[in-house]
Amino acid sequence: MRFMLRRQIIMNKTRVLLVEDEFPARTVFRGMIEARPDLFELVGEAEDGRDGLEMYRTLKPHVIVTDITMPGMNGLDMLREIESMGDAQPQKIILTCHQDFHYAKQAIQLKAASYLLKDDCLSDPELLTRTMEELTTQMATLDRDRQKQQQMEQQLRSGELELERSLFLEQLRSPAAEAQWLSSLREAGFPERGGSAAAILLELDSGSLRFSLDQLDELKLWQFAGANVLKELLGGYSAHKVISLDKGRFLGLYAAAPELPFVPVNLEHMVQSFHTFLKMNAFALQTVFDRGVGEWGPVLRRLATSSYPFFYSGGRSSTADEGGKRNRFEDVPEPMSRLWTKRLKQALLESRLTDAPLEEERAALYRQSKEQHWQPEQIKALYGRVLLELSRFTAEAERTTNLEVEYRRSLEQCQTFFAVHDTTVACFRQLRELQGDSRSIDASIAELVRRMHEDLSCPYSLEELAASVNYSVPYFSAMFKKTTGESFVVYLTRLRIEKAKLLLLTTDQKTFEIAEAVGFENYRSFNRIFKKETGMTPSDYRRG
Known about the structure:
The chain has about 550 residues and is α/β, with parallel strands linked by helices. It has 4 domains: about 15-140, Rossmann fold; about 175-320, 2-Layer Sandwich (Alpha-Beta Plaits); about 335-435; about 440-544, Arc Repressor Mutant, subunit A (Orthogonal Bundle), CATH 1.10.10. It is built from 24 helices and 10 strands. The strands form 2 sheets. Strands 2-1-3-4-5 form a 5-stranded parallel beta sheet, with helices on both faces. It has a 5-stranded mixed beta sheet with strand order 7-8-6-9-10, sandwiched between helices. Helix 13 packs across helix 15 (about 375-390). The protein is elongated, with a radius of gyration of 37 Å.
């Protein structure tokens, strides 16, 4: 063991600060310390206590070797200042010419590790470094013991959290386990009948995490840290319990002593504390109970298992009955889905000129979605559909695909309505950048392209389309290519051939019926263009 400690010391040299006003004495003590470069690194020398204090603040040495009597601030006053800082304290060795017990007593009060007479050091040149080596060994042992103690405490707290979590999850599945768990709440001091208590559901904002939720070891560490922050925040209540759930989610229960008024936690302060201590954002909801623990089960179950508890609200308190209503969602009616798809798409297209329409549509959709309590997954699908349709205008196919994949991944992690909206807008702006400065989306052209995608059977004419949006044919052609990256004829032909290929492979329609469905005037024209684009006839393509 001694060998291991010495190796650790050698690998991490002990940093030493020397404070001595007399130059000859400082030179001698410097030589003693530098005689053991295998163990010690002299990081600084000071002529008085004030300089020594400044050097301590900057250099943070492990050991301070100091004289007592010096001009200005003396050594003992310097050590008092260091003691008052409250930092992890260095080992302190006091060198003095005084054998007076008065000085020794002050040194003891300042927790000096050693009190050496200068004459003894001069008589035994290795006394100072021998003393420092012994202190260094003690420091290494203390550090090791402290680390072991911290690991044991962490394992104990982690074990308690895991047990608490297991008991809670088990009671969600089994009525018998629920009765046992509620009984443990009574034993912890929660009110059996009446009284006031509250449950807090807190979830880390996935957008502020510095790791992926799929990194289980990293997540477990932060779950532990978050549970401890929440425990600390609820520690002032006579009864409190913290359950660490999955994916950065926590459930905290608390109640005041019966003789004290119940004051609910300030959720804004709690969220700010998570940001301060963990450097992460969080969402929080609070449900206040005015009945005993026997009736908490259904409410806690809804809180713990809700998929989107923060989608339309966060940082608010409610009664147990209100909390139950919050987690019930309704389907988005299909007509409303089509309407909002159109409105959002138009607002995104217009955002090139101004963000005002986009902000207005976001506020209106949020208001209606919240009032109707529409399904969060369907809101995500609505935004996803909008972006997918707009991505058709980009010629950079590979980069657009990568962007769409990243967008879907980000969309899955969105916990709130506003995160869904902002993620979609950010992706749309990246999409627009792919088009380059020379190309922008024209809202009128975009609407015509949408119509083409929805119905290819129409005999679209360049002249008629240009007239429908009050553009001249040359200007329409230029704007169409600027928007889509392809000329009108090439773009329309590609759409028709791609749709024909899909129908040939997935339906039993006859070839002439497919030609008519995708807008070709006759079978002969369809056959000729299909072979030109694919290198084979429609019949060969279907057989192949």
